[in-house]
Amino acid sequence: AKPAPTTARLVDNRMLSLPGAGKEVRRFTLDTSGTPLTYEAGDALGVRPVNSLGLVAEWLAVTGLDGSTGVQVNGVGAIPFAEALHRHLDITRISSDLLRFVSERARDNRELKKLLRPDNKDGFAQWSWGRQAVDVVAEYAVRASAQEWADVFKRLQPRQYSISSSPLVDPHRISLTVSVVRYENLHGRPRGGVCSPFLADGEPDMEVPVFVQRSPHFRPPADDSTPMIMVGPGTGVAPFIGFLEERRALGHRAPNWLFFGEQHRATDFYYEDELTGFLEDGVLARLDTAFSRDQRAKVYVQDRMREHGPELWHWLQDGARFYVCGDASRMAKDVDRALRDVAVTHGGMSEGEAAAYVKQLAADKRYVRDVY
Fold first, then answer.
1. I need a surface site. Which of 25, 54, 259, 356 has the fewest CB within 10 A?
2. Is the Cβ–Cβ distance between 321 and 227 less than 8 Å?
3. What is the C-alpha to C-alpha distance for residues 150 and 170, in angstroms, rounded to an integer?
């Protein structure tokens, strides 16, 4: 069962990426005063967003339906269609159910039928790029009743973000580090994610329904003599800001090492001031950065790990815990590979021994990941 949501207030919305950046990355701070919400560094915050009113209006225009028409939504009951679109239904994602629904009602459904083939997942993903559900319905001009649409949409799900703060700094402030999803569809209309623009475009002091998702496996070391190595490129740096705040607040003396990466140092060095502060006061012993597009050959965090392999191996031999946060599809695999390479090159292990060593680190909870 999901924890019951409570309401926090959006009290700070700060742009982390600088003008000219390819991404819009922000730090959001929520005030939980007066709520029973508690959290620990390493936890995630679940946010329950609503769809934008502009998108709801577009859906009503495209479907030709009246927003005041009553519909039944499972677990909610009878409500006006416009409210269902705004608060309860996932009206952005192109699901296979939606595609099938449109295909059954479209005049010419040859392309849709091809996209729905089980062996065409890549084609489906490619076709969906730059389109949202409303674009598909507009393209095929299908007609259905409000209830039929309400039945085909999935329920709007909460989004989870790694928490970027420590309760030891302020137990009633929770910060998040979020890449805001915005793009244009094939006709140049602005499109976006559900939750990140909901936060980014929210009024100051907006009420946000939230809950804490515990991550008991993902905590900074409790022992003040355990070194910590963190690999957090992009928004993967999020939990490590909280980890470093926590170790500073506890006065832990063990050394900490962060690998951070992004595209350009000039625009994408999130938390540069804070990280410089951690270096100056000794909380961060080492900071190694990889800005992939600042030179001809792309350089990533895993390349920096290999470059500093002897030192990395030395830290691991000293009992360091190794943390990874960020993209599961590529980065986490590349970092895992680099970790094994370091064990081979600097630990004198065979491939098989290195794989077993890394597996054992994970079993001993010394290699932990928060990947998505």
1. 54
2. yes
3. 42
Q: Which two tokens stand for residue 136?
A: 């598909």
Q: Which of 130, 175, 138 has its CA nearest to residue 59?
A: 138
Structure tokens at 257: 């090492």
- Residue 61: how many CB atoms within 10 A of its CB? 11
Q: Which domains does the chain have, with CATH numbers?
A: 6-47+158-213 (2.40.30.10), 53-152 (1.20.990.10), 228-371 (3.40.50.80)
Which residues, listed in sequence order, are joined to residue 180 by a DSSP beta bridge? 24
Using one digit for the tens of pLDDT, what is the confidence trace for 161-206?
999 999 999 999 999 999 999 999 988 999 999 999 999 999 999 9
Residues in contact with 257: Cβ distance below 8 Å, sequence separation at least 6, in sequence order: 227, 228, 229, 230, 284, 285, 286, 287, 288, 315, 320
Q: What are phi and psi of 14, to 5 degrees?
A: -115, 130
Q: In what order do the strands lie in the sheet with 286-291?
A: 286-291, 256-262, 228-231, 321-326, 367-371
Alpha carbons 50 and 93: distance in angstroms, whole number: 14
pLDDT, one tens digit per residue, over 92-140 is 999 999 999 999 998 888 899 999 999 999 999 999 998 999 999 999 9
CA–CA gap between residue 237 and residue 280 (Å, rounded) = 19
Residue 155 tokens, joined? 């329920």
Report the amino acid identity of residue 216.
P
